Amino acid sequence: MEISNIVHSEKMAAELAEVYIANIYGQKAAERQKPYLVTQVDGYWQVIGGMHKRQLGGTFEIHIAKDDGSILQLIHSR
C-alpha cells in the first residue's frame, strides 16, 4: 500500500518543524522563533522561524516533504 501526502496540513508542518528544530537547536530556540510562517510549495512545506525584537541570532528555514515528512533542506541565518 502506497502512502502519500503524510504531512497534509499547515498545522502538521509547523508541529513537525518544531520537533526537528528542537532536536537540532534545542527547545528554547524552537519556542523563541514562534509563530512560524508556513507556506505550501509544490511537494513540500516551507517553514520559517519568526524574528523578534532584541533577539540574538538568526532564524531557521526548513523544507519538509509532504509525502513522508523528511527534511529536504534546513538552513539557519545569522
TrEMBL record:
Q: What residue stretches are annotated with the NTF2 fold domain?
A: 12-78
**One Pfam family in the UniProt entry:** Imm-NTF2-2
Top-level taxon of the source organism: Bacteria
InterPro entries reported in the protein's UniProt record: NTF2_fold_dom
Protein's recorded name: NTF2 fold domain-containing protein
